[in-house]
Design goal:
Blueprint: H1 3-21, H2 25-41, H3 46-71, E1 86-93, E2 96-101, E3 104-110, E4 121-127, E5 130-134
Parallel strand pairs: 3-5
Antiparallel strand pairs: 1-2, 1-4, 2-3, 4-5
Helix pairs in contact: 1-2, 2-3
């Protein structure tokens, strides 16, 4: 069997496994194997085939890492929608208490000692299931 066929089989296997994992890295390596197969089909030697695969795999990996870094926004979470929303105080004592928010009771604490529970409170931060409140 010709070398290009082996490269294309390797590329197909990598892409097939990628469909089960969803990480995109195996897709990059599959494309690199197919490109090396193209180099073999064009008559280039083993060295050129491996260099082609290595360069495309490296560039693809770097591009994928950059894309993932640019598309991840850890600062924007579902909790950000809660920030600034008003809550209804159910019980409050010494800067801690329970408030009603979205139809449920939540544990809450004051953002600072100056927080006045007799005035309307708003969510300033979310720490797990604890709401941090301020005026």
């Amino acid at each position: 069997m010709q070398a290009y066929v082996w490269w294309w089989i390797a590329g197909a296997v990598l892409v097939g496994v990628e469909l089960a994992t969803g990480t995109f890295y195996l897709l990059v390596y599959g494309v690199a194997a197919v490109a090396a197969g193209m180099a073999a089909w064009l008559g280039f030697g083993w060295g050129t085939q491996f260099i082609t695969a290595a360069v495309i795999a490296a560039l693809g990996t770097l591009a994928l890492k950059r894309w993932k870094r640019d598309t991840q926004h850890p600062e924007s979470t579902v909790q950000d929608m809660d920030i600034g929303q008003p809550v209804q105080v159910e019980s409050w004592q010494a800067g801690r208490g329970q408030v009603k928010y979205r139809g449920a009771l939540w544990d809450a604490e004051a953002e600072s000692p100056e927080t006045d529970a007799s005035r309307p409170l708003r969510i300033r931060a979310v720490k797990g299931t604890l709401l941090v409140l301020g005026n």
